[in-house]
Design brief:
The complex is a heterodimer of chains A (147) and B (141). Chain A is an alpha+beta fold and 147 residues long. In chain A, 32% of the residues lie in helices and 29% in strands. In chain A, strands 3-1-2-4-5 form a 5-stranded mixed beta sheet. Chain B is an alpha+beta fold. Chain B has a single domain, classed as Tetrahydropterin Synthase, Chain A (2-Layer Sandwich), CATH 3.30.479. Chain B is built from 4 helices and 5 strands. A 5-stranded mixed beta sheet of chain B has the order 3-1-2-4-5. The radius of gyration of chain B is 17 Å and the shape is elongated. Classes of the chains: A alpha+beta (147), B alpha+beta (141). The interface between A and B is medium-sized, with 31 and 21 residues. β5 of chain A pairs antiparallel with β1 of chain B, so a sheet runs across the interface.
């Protein structure tokens, strides 16, 4: 098994606000991230695909194909966007690193037809990142949900 | 979804690698420059990874302010700008290699109440790093 990782960057703005919290609770829970004008990050996304190299090409999957998938599914949707308002997949969710990474996993997973999507790592800053490994049957059962 | 949230922290500290049970020559041979009796220092980077369900109300595994405060209190504040061999109790009897620092930090963070501690990774320099995920260690400890 070989793990192949491709990295992209996108810049986007967001804010954290839960309409069911009071103004004061929003400020207490989300701190500076609750600024109603939003703020932005240079996100770095590392996508790792696991698989055995095809003996004919020596590749797990064609990097050009992966590059196109990332451009279409992530960059075109999220780059230079206000995530709360312009990315329908995040609508109704707080656009934390956890939730964005989960959305990206779900956008990419059906498109990876060679090898298996192993990990989506999303850096919000160099000091904060989330790794998403997708669903596991155990985790789904433990949560008692099918999401 | 299986998610790990990772946060990076920094502290600067000095140490000396020296085992009093080994002779002077043996210490020099095993630890080389790191055996200098005056010690030396590093800018350590600590990556702390936690997991758990994402709270739908906040979108978070754990509130970063709470994780930051916990790591600050348990690790950064006690370790930063210290001589680890003397000022961290556990390293009076244990050589403060980055392996042992990694294990000690994991033990200090194990009880974080808001999420499950998955991994501690410590960079001693930008060229050396060590990871510990809490699995049991051999009988030598």
């Amino acid at each position: 098994m070989v793990y192949l990782t491709r990295k992209i960057e996108f810049s986007a703005s967001h804010l954290y606000h839960n309409p069911s919290f009071s103004a004061e609770e929003n400020r207490r829970v989300f701190g500076k991230c609750n600024n109603p004008h939003g703020h932005g990050h240079n996100y770095v996304l590392e996508v790792t695909v696991a698989g055995d190299p095809d003996p004919a090409t020596g590749m797990v999957l064609d990097l050009k194909e992966l590059k196109e998938i990332l451009q279409r599914e992530v960059t075109d949707r999220m780059d230079h966007r206000f995530l709360n308002y312009e990315v329908p997949e995040l609508s109704g969710q707080i656009p934390t690193c956890e939730n964005i990474a989960t959305v990206i996993w779900r956008l990419l997973q059906p498109n990876i037809t060679r090898g298996n999507l192993h990990r989506v790592r999303l850096y919000e800053t160099p000091d904060l990142f989330v790794d998403c490994y997708g669903e596991t049957n155990g985790a789904r059962a433990a949560l008692g949900v099918s999401r | 979804m299986r998610l790990h949230l990772t946060r990076r922290y920094r502290f600067a500290a000095s140490h000396r690698l020296h085992n009093p049970q080994l002779g002077e020559e043996e210490n020099k041979r095993v630890y080389g420059k790191c055996n200098n009796p005056y010690g030396h220092g590093h800018n350590y980077v600590v990556e702390v990874s936690v997991s758990g369900p994402v709270d739908p109300a906040t979108g978070m595994i754990a509130n970063l302010a709470e994780l930051d405060a916990f790591v600050e209190r348990e690790v950064v504040e006690p370790f930063d700008h210290t001589y680890l061999n003397e000022e961290i109790f556990e390293f009076r009897e244990r050589v403060p290699t980055t392996e042992n620092i990694c294990i000690e930090i994991f033990d200090r963070l194990r009880e974080f109440p808001r999420a499950k501690l998955e991994r501690v990774r410590v960079e001693e320099t930008s060229l050396n790093s060590f990871e510990y995920t809490g699995e049991s260690l051999g009988s030598g400890r």
